[in-house]
Design goal:
The chain has a single domain, classed as EIF_2_alpha (Alpha-Beta Plaits), CATH 3.30.70.1130. The chain has about 200 residues and is α+β, with helices and mostly antiparallel strands. The chain has helices at about 5-10, 15, 30-40, 60-80, 105-120, 165-175, and strands at about 45-55, 85-90, 95-100, 125-135, 140-145, 150-155, 155, 160. α4 (about 60-80) runs antiparallel to α5 (about 105-120). It starts with a helix and ends in a 27-residue tail after the last helix. A six-stranded antiparallel β-sheet has the order 2-3-1-4-5-6. It has a two-stranded antiparallel ribbon with strand order 7-8. The protein is globular and about 45 Å long.
């Protein structure tokens, strides 16, 4: 199974068929308290960026839906100062990447983007929302799987290694504050490209 197939399996159709609860973009607001816990209890700072991963559809209606998402984020950026861009990664997946100094603005903008896809009839194309943090040991991410309706931690290290002890610590501290995926088979790594720093690069 290749990397692309693995992503489709863990965040895609198999995750949907094995879902333990229905995904809800309101879940993303759980990060409004989680980022405070990450800072106060674990010493993590936000990287002031996050992203929404989705699978594209080759149709004019879907392109119109993406345009609507961009228009809503553009309108909101005037109030929040949140920058955004829409990109495609090396594996053919699309990302709405947002940058904001205020974590609350970041969370709200990610929710707006996800909710707009759902309202436009493309909620099934949503794969994950990714929130980035870092401490002196390196980055850590909370990933929300729309197909599983749950979060899981991801702590990548150089050489495409994972810091499992950090991931388990994040799970122990945040479980209950976030709905954490209980089946670690679904803690799928979202590696950046060879030249990227974050999963969306």
């Amino acid at each position: 199974m290749g990397l692309l197939d693995g992503l489709r399996s863990i965040l895609g159709t198999r995750a949907e068929s094995d879902a333990s609860r229905e995904a809800d973009p309101e879940d993303l607001f759980g990060m409004s308290t989680a980022y405070l816990t990450m800072a106060a209890d674990l010493g993590y700072d936000s990287v002031d960026a996050g992203a929404l991963c989705f699978a594209g559809v080759d149709s004019s209606q879907f392109r119109d839906a993406v345009d609507t998402v961009e228009a809503i984020l553009e309108a909101g950026s005037e109030d929040t100062g949140t920058d955004f861009r829409v990109t495609e990664d090396d594996h053919g997946y699309h990302w709405v990447v947002l940058e904001a100094a205020d974590p609350e603005d970041l969370i709200t903008s990610l929710h707006f983007a996800a909710d707009t896809f759902i309202e436009e009839g493309y909620g099934s194309r949503l794969l994950a929302a990714v929130f980035g943090y870092e401490d002196r040991d390196g980055p850590a991410y909370w990933i929300y799987s729309f197909r599983r309706g749950a979060f899981y931690p991801f702590a990548p290290r150089s050489g495409r290694e994972r810091d499992s002890s950090t991931e388990f610590k994040l799970e122990a501290v945040l479980d209950g504050e976030l709905t954490v995926e209980p089946d670690r088979e679904y803690w799928y790594p979202l590696w950046p490209s060879s030249s990227g720093r974050h999963p969306w690069e």
